[in-house]
Specification:
The protein is mostly helical. 79% of the residues lie in helices and 0% in strands. The radius of gyration is 19 Å and the shape is elongated. The termini are far apart.
């Protein structure tokens, strides 16, 4: 069994546990779905980038890269570790925002949108360099962004249904 199989298994198990946790905490309907999709992105980031960082450190300790060439601590190794750590942090931020989204906290959607947009900002420029990694993360991030936007449209429609005067409010002096 390779490390790739372990990472995929951890992502699958983590996603099942996370969406179940969202459900137990009261998330229903669109909030549950949006939390699940964005949570999947968060879990993918945390698990895969943790494995990435462990691999980079292992290669540094071994002194050789995957291609058999010497691999020493230099700017490339630093950049690989930094990218991994930043994406782990964004994944954790996204998971926290999804949990808050499930509890219907007002700022949760904005936090999830911010973390997802930052992931896209970091990952899209990597497509020419690392297609295997960057394209799936770009697709998943875009899907999460669209689902979170869809959730926002639903929240605005509900606010207008509850208080129609807010839809046409004007500033009063």
């Amino acid at each position: 069994m390779s490390i790739d199989h372990v990472v995929v298994a951890l992502i699958g198990l983590g996603t099942i546990v996370f969406i179940g946790h969202l459900r137990r905490r009261g998330a229903r309907g669109r909030r549950w779905f949006a939390g699940g999709v964005a949570g999947l992105l968060g879990i993918v980031l945390v698990v895969s980038m943790s494995a990435h960082c462990v691999d980079v450190v292992g290669r540094l300790l071994a002194g050789t890269g995957h291609d058999g060439k010497p691999f020493a601590y230099d700017f490339r190794a630093y950049a690989l570790l930094l990218l991994g750590l930043v994406l782990i942090r964004l994944g954790a931020d996204l998971l926290r925002a999804c949990l808050r989204l499930g509890r219907s906290e007002p700022s949760a959607r904005a936090g999830a949108l911010r973390a997802t947009a930052l992931v896209l900002f970091l990952v899209v420029p990597l497509i020419p360099l690392q297609r295997f990694f960057a394209i799936p993360l770009t697709v998943l991030s875009t899907a999460a962004l669209l689902v979170l936007a869809w959730l926002g449209a639903d929240e605005r429609a509900r606010a207008e249904d509850v208080n129609p005067s807010r839809a046409y409010s004007t500033s009063r002096a």
